[in-house]
Specification:
alpha+beta, two-stranded antiparallel ribbon, 3 helices, 4 strands, 50% helix, binds zinc ion
């Protein structure tokens, strides 16, 4: 097992495919890699995996909304 802490430091874990990647965007405080970003953009309801991606987005969104509500209550 080899650990390269320096290179891992700039990589983040994608919330959909759970792969470490350097390229991507942040969505609702979560990291989304370029691959998944492209898949989401090109995804249609007829595609295999649509429900999977949709559910991931719903999970993230609900988590985000929970955080917002929580902050507002303090
Ligand atoms: Zn990904």
């Amino acid at each position: 097992m080899v650990l390269h802490m320096e290179s891992i430091a700039t990589k983040r874990k994608c919330f959909i495919c759970e792969q470490q990647s350097e390229d991507g965007i942040e969505v609702l405080g979560k990291f989304l890699c370029t691959n998944c970003q492209q898949k989401l953009i090109n995804l249609s309801p007829f595609d295999e995996g649509y429900d999977f991606y949709r559910q991931k987005m719903i999970d993230i969104w609900e988590g985000y909304m929970r955080d917002i509500k929580y902050e507002n209550r303090i």
